[in-house]
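Final report, closing paragraph on structural work. Over the funding period we assembled a curated collection of sequence-structure pairs, and we close with a single example.
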Amino acid sequence: MANRTVIIAGATGLVGREILQGLLADPSVAAVHSLGRRKPAAQHPKLTAHVVDFAALPALPPADEVYLALGTTIKVAGSPAAFRAVDHDANLAVATAAMAAGVKKVGLVSAMGADAHSKVFYSRVKGELEDALAKMPFEGLVIARPSMLVGNREVLGQPTRQGEVLASALGKAVGFLIPANYKPIDASAVAQALLSTVPSAKGKTVLLSGSMRREVLPPPPS
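Its predicted structure, as stored:
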């Protein structure tokens, strides 16, 4: 589909930045509207950056697709309630406003293990968001559930996450022993999987790391 108009929330994050770059480079995308608490670093004739309060979103411009890449951690957010306000409430608010703007296709950056019935708070919040989006009358919903992400957070002005550093080191050392869905995955691979799947999505699709993963780690020693 040519001349697509796309909305993205969370374009300053690890995966969101990669999604934004892909959209700006795509000749079939005519306009991109980013929603965030601050503007992304990228500048482009296609890009209109909107600084918003996710608890009081304005009406959004008409669009074809929305990518939901808002996310934080409980440590960074400061409390479970603050974490939920970002990972669940803000994403759902964008989806609701996007639906009102005529959006038919949704791409969500979720997480491995997302389950609304999980005893783990993080996974439960992710799962509750997935379930809420699945109940909305979108034509297509694509959910990416990556394992531990690999990417340069320092470039984004974000603190390095120790768990990601350890997972990356483990993947390099014994990655050939780790099942595909559990191997560390590059943020760009997650972005590309969504970008290639969302425009033609019908119904609900769940992408696990095994299907999204690019070979970003060195092969095992011979």
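The mean pLDDT is 88. The chain has one domain: 4-205. We thank the funder for supporting this effort.
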